[in-house]
Amino acid sequence: MAPPWLKAVPDGVELAVLVQPRASRTRVVGEHDGLLKLQLAAPPVDGEANAALLEFLSKQLGVPRRQVTLTAGDASRRKRVKVVGIDAARAEAVISGQT
Fold first, then answer.
1. A Pfam family matched by this chain, by name (predicted)?
2. What is the pTM of this model?
């Protein structure tokens, strides 16, 4: 069964994430309140944390940056990110291996 933060969509997956900006380093922390918790080294200023989030997820999941988009939560700590070109099983395996 897929974790609550992972949802399969027709052309990829959607991740429900909780970000903690200004952390000491960028990393996956685990699950928190049904969301995937990520610490980001970038500050939440001028979209830097959002850019760092999308870049980090594209590298972790092995997809080009253009296939990772922020669909909700632009100015919130709770965000939804869509990743095209990856299935839910692979996304879960890669991210769960990071925690």
1. DUF167
2. 0.93
